[in-house]
Design a protein that fits this description.
Helices cover 41% and strands 20% of the residues. It is of the alpha/beta class. It has one domain (1-64, 77-88, 108-125): Response regulator (Rossmann fold, 3-Layer(aba) Sandwich), CATH 3.40.50.2300. A 5-stranded parallel beta sheet has the order 2-1-3-4-5, with helices on both faces. Helix 3 (67-77) packs parallel to helix 4.
């Protein structure tokens, strides 16, 4: 993890409007990372003004501010925070736009737990 002691857990912010996904991600990530859960992008952007976040896991398709718009805002205000997009479906042009805006990775749902952990760990290097 960037410049931090190994005894300090990296912070991961999960943003997804589906409760089952949020609960699942919290359960699988909580032992390895300090996990915060949010239901929408707007509240997450507010949260990030007061809390340091290493990695954001954000759903692409959400009501209100969508994941792509949130990605742009996160990278604009917190360029060192890595953002991993998640979705059940995204057109190729959406994925290209996410990478142009600075997404670290774009993972397809249903999520593969091992791939997710590897991706988060790589984002923390």
């Amino acid at each position: 993890m960037r410049g931090n002691s190994m005894s300090v857990k990296a912070t991961v912010l999960v943003i997804d409007d589906e409760r089952e996904i949020r609960d699942f991600l919290y359960f699988i990530l909580k032992d390895k990372y300090a996990v915060s859960i949010m239901t929408g992008a707007k509240e997450s952007l507010t949260y990030m003004t007061e809390h340091s976040v290493n990695v954001v896991l954000i759903d692409y398709n959400m009501p209100g501010i969508d994941g792509i718009t949130a990605l742009g805002e996160i990278k604009k205000h917190y360029p060192d925070t890595e953002v991993i997009m998640m979705t059940g479906y995204a057109p190729p042009d959406t994925m290209r736009k996410a990478f142009r805006l600075g997404a670290f990775a774009f993972l397809m749902k249903p999520l593969n737990i091992e791939e997710l952990i590897r991706t988060i760990d790589a984002a923390l290097l």
